[in-house]
Write a structure and sequence with these properties.
The protein contains five helices and 28 strands. It is α/β, with parallel strands linked by helices. The chain has two domains: about 190 residues, Hexapeptide repeat proteins (UDP N-Acetylglucosamine Acyltransferase, domain 1, 3 Solenoid); about 50 residues. Strands 1-4-7-10-13-16-19-22-25-27-28 form an eleven-stranded mixed β-sheet. Strands 2-5-8-11-14-17-20-23-26 form a nine-stranded parallel β-sheet, with no helix packed on it. A hairpin with a 4-residue loop joins strand 27 and strand 28. Helix 2 packs parallel to helix 5. The chain is elongated and about 65 Å long.
Length: about 270
């Protein structure tokens, strides 16, 4: 019987704890924990730090200074930690930090910060960044966020915990996307989105509380009804923002969800989506 000449295609182990393919290029100044898997033809540059349990698939480019936490999974053709294409960026050693348990799917791009802002882009824990989504310089993504295919964040966007951006949704620079909000497919967001609301369209406008998403996340019926009441005050009673916030103040003292909803409105710097 003819012995197969087919070489092991994927991982060629260096030792029991590390699986680095022989074609991967790893700079000597990169710091990689034991138990990190690196696939074929991936390039790990200087200043990259990767903690244990993380899997880097094939053809991934990681540039530093970048810190990647534990148990992340970065899929093929993603480019993570490159310098910003912002014209003001002049190659300064800005940073990218990524937490634990994130799924960064095919072709995702994440850029480091710029010195004109805070100098760091931040991605939290347990986020799902689907294929070809984009995170620009100085963005801050909290935990349990979903960016669906081709969703794109411009510079210095903030995304709160549990928010979901549908496919092809785009967000203008400096906007804030509130916790547990939902941006529908193709939304063009140019204003701040308060926590817990849904937006859609171009430009994106609100169309109610994210009730289904909140139920799936385990929010109580009482919390959801209180948010609906607060929403009506802000969006349905023809009140000014100041008048609406005053009207729902008693609800905010009783329900932390309403307090968060009002907090995101108060902190808005670009005006809220209407």
């Amino acid at each position: 019987m003819m012995k197969s000449s087919v070489k092991q295609l994927y991982f060629v182990p260096i030792d029991q704890n590390n699986m680095h393919h022989e074609t991967a290029i790893i700079d000597k100044k990169a710091k990689i924990d034991e138990g990190v898997t690196i696939g074929p033809y991936s390039v790990i540059g200087p200043g990259v730090r990767i903690l244990k349990g993380t899997i880097i698939e094939s053809h991934v480019i990681l540039s530093g200074p970048t810190k990647i936490g534990k148990n992340n999974h970065i899929f093929q053709f993603s480019t993570v930690g490159d310098g910003s294409p912002d014209k003001k960026y002049k190659g300064e050693p800005t940073k990218l930090t990524i937490g634990d348990g994130n799924q960064i799917r095919e072709g995702v791009t994440i850029h480091r910060g710029t010195v004109q802002e805070k100098g760091v882009t931040k991605v939290g824990n347990n986020n799902l960044l689907l294929a070809y989504s984009h995170v620009a310089h100085d963005c801050e993504i909290a935990d349990n966020v979903v960016l669906t295919n081709q969703a794109a964040l411009a510079g210095a966007v903030k995304v709160g915990e549990g928010a979901i951006l549908g496919g092809y949704a785009i967000v203008h620079q400096y906007c804030s996307i509130g916790a547990y909000s939902f941006c529908a497919m193709g939304s063009a967001v140019n204003k701040d989105v308060p926590a817990f609301v849904r937006v859609r369209g171009n430009p994106a406008g609100v169309y109610g509380i994210n009730s289904i998403g909140l139920r799936r996340q385990g929010f109580s019926k009482s919390a959801i009804e209180s948010l609906k009441s607060a929403y009506r005050s802000v969006y349905r009673k023809n009140l000014t923002v100041e008048e609406a916030l005053k009207e729902i103040r008693p609800l905010a003292t009783k329900h932390k969800e309403v307090k968060l909803f009002t907090s995101t409105i108060k902190k808005s710097t670009r005006g809220i989506a209407r």
